[in-house]
Design brief:
Blueprint: E1 5-9, H1 13-25, E2 29-34, E3 47-50, H2 55-65, E4 68-73, H3 80-93, E5 97-100, E6 113-116, H4 119-126, E7 132-135, E8 152-157, E9 170-174, H5 181-190, E10 195-199, H6 208-216, E11 220-223, E12 233-234, H7 237-247
Parallel strand pairs: 1-2, 1-4, 2-3, 4-5, 5-12, 6-11, 7-8, 7-10, 8-9, 10-11
This protein binds NADP nicotinamide-adenine-dinucleotide phosphate (NAP).
NADP nicotinamide-adenine-dinucleotide phosphate binds next to β2, α2 and α3.
């Protein structure tokens, strides 16, 4: 049988950092897993696997085949499908699982946030009300905004897209975080942005847009996180590391 493994489901800066720390201290082999949706991801210096597992069933097979002893789900707070799949697969195989997820952003004095429960509500809110909209949500739910026909969307992406977006009027802004407040502010001013749409991802790397929006007096349409599966959740790499030390 192969050496027991510790699976880190990645796709976030914290996941990379955690995998690096665990590789240094754990007696298990750390395996960092990525969906494979970006072409030049940041990677830790440990074993890496790329691509979906094939749903819950495929994941169960993988966990057994790779002799996984524990899993840390450090995917993005909006990666609801992966979180749900790994919760189900690890429960059925009785493999310890932890969710590492950074804390949510909270509004500060001077912020003008409109909080909506999901991306559909965000699209309804925009329809016919805002002309120049900065979309910082990524493009996974982009078709939801098709109904906002009178808005021009400035869509921030990391790399060129394979297909045109299903929006009537848009411009791509190619940028990779972490972002700086002064640059974000200059960008919003140059583009005459009236509304910033973002997911409540939390974390430092993408926080600058919120401060920039506050400084520019621009409202922020904040999309709430999806529900996470039941189970232990920690917000920091240190706590995730301690959890690993106690379960293996
Ligand atoms: P998702 O909807 O929860 O996942 C869709 C499918 O992608 C999963 O069912 C799984 O395929 C595969 N997948 C996701 N994460 C994976 C991982 N770490 N390793 C192997 N397969 C994975 O997630 P998503 O929103 O598409 O996000 C995909 C990845 O991008 C995640 O790792 C996430 O951390 C990262 N990310 C997401 C966002 C966001 O806003 N959603 C933002 C930044 C980064 P199978 O069912 O075939 O196993």
């Amino acid at each position: 049988m192969n050496k027991a493994g510790l699976l880190v489901l990645g796709g976030t800066a914290e996941a990379v950092e955690l995998a690096v720390v665990l590789s240094q201290i754990s007696r298990l082999e750390v395996i960092y897993s990525l969906a494979g949706k970006t072409t030049k991801p940041n990677l830790p210096n440990c074993r890496v696997r790329v691509g979906g597992f094939g749903g819950i069933k495929g994941l169960e097979e993988y966990l057994l085949r790779a002799n996984i002893a524990a899993v840390v789900d450090a995917t993005h707070p909006f990666a609801a499908q992966m979180a749900s799949n790994v919760a189900a697969a690890s429960a059925s195989l009785k493999i310890p699982r932890l969710k590492l997820v950074r804390q949510e952003w909270m509004p500060a004095t001077g912020d003008n946030w409109i909080c909506v429960p999901n991306v559909q509500e965000a699209a309804h809110y925009v329809e016919g009300s805002y002309w120049r909209v900065f979309l910082a949500t990524g493009i996974s739910d982009i078709e939801t905004f098709t109904s906002a026909q009178y808005s021009k969307f400035f869509v921030r992406v990391i790399e060129p897209l394979q297909h045109a977006l299903p929006l009537s009027d848009y411009e791509l802004i190619f940028q990779r975080g972490p972002f700086v407040i002064a640059d974000e502010q200059a960008l919003f001013e140059r583009l005459c942005i009236e509304l910033v749409i973002c997911k409540n991802s939390g974390g430092r790397g993408a926080e600058a847009k919120l401060t920039a929006a506050r400084n520019c007096g621009i409202p922020v349409l904040m999309i709430a996180r999806p529900e996470m599966p039941l189970g232990q959740i920690v917000p920091t790499i240190e706590e995730a590391t301690r959890w690993v030390e106690t379960v293996i």
